[in-house]
Amino acid sequence: MRSKGMTNLKLSRTTHHSFSSSSAWYNYTPPPSPHQEDPVLSAISKAILNSKTKPLHHSSLRNLLTSLTPQHVINLINHNPYSLSPHSLLSFFQCLSSHPTFRHTLHSYCTMAHFLCSHNMFPQAQSLLHS
């Protein structure tokens, strides 16, 4: 029995779908735990911080160039341990692009573009993706 003031409620069943793929288009590397500081990221960050114009000319960074990987760059952008400005990180990214022994990956370009967009640097992100 229903009382006069009760309204009929129609309950709908929600079906949840999950999609999975056996192979991802990228390799996810979990971030280091907060209490561990990656020495490579620290060295890169310090070099960028201490360099006013061209970070790749800083001696400590030149020594790291041979072991620097796109994953290091991705981690630097994502974690930014020294809170470097977006302009500083973009400058480093662009300098690194022009270095003959280093190649960014699609993942590193997408990470930088996302970082720039999150800082309202849309023209720079668009320019980066068109380069």
Provide a quick synopsis of the model:
It comes from Quercus suber. With 131 residues, the protein is mainly α.
Helix/strand order: HHHHHH
User: What's the mean pLDDT score?
Assistant: 79
In whole angstroms, how far apart are the ends?
Answer: 70 Å
Query: Total number of helical segments?
Result: 6
| Shape type | globular
Largest beta sheet, briefly? none
Helix fraction, binned, reads 40-55%
Structural class: mainly alpha
Alpha-carbon Rg, integer: 23 Å
Strand content: under 5%
Set down the secondary structure blueprint:
Layout: H1 39-50, H2 59-64, H3 70-79, H4 86-97, H5 106-118, H6 122-130
Structure characterization notes:
- This protein starts with 38 loop residues before the first helix and ends with a helix.
- The chain is mostly helical and 131 residues long.
- The chain is 47% helix and 0% strand.
- It has one domain (39-130).
Structural features:
single chain, 131 residues, mainly alpha, 6 helices, 0% strand
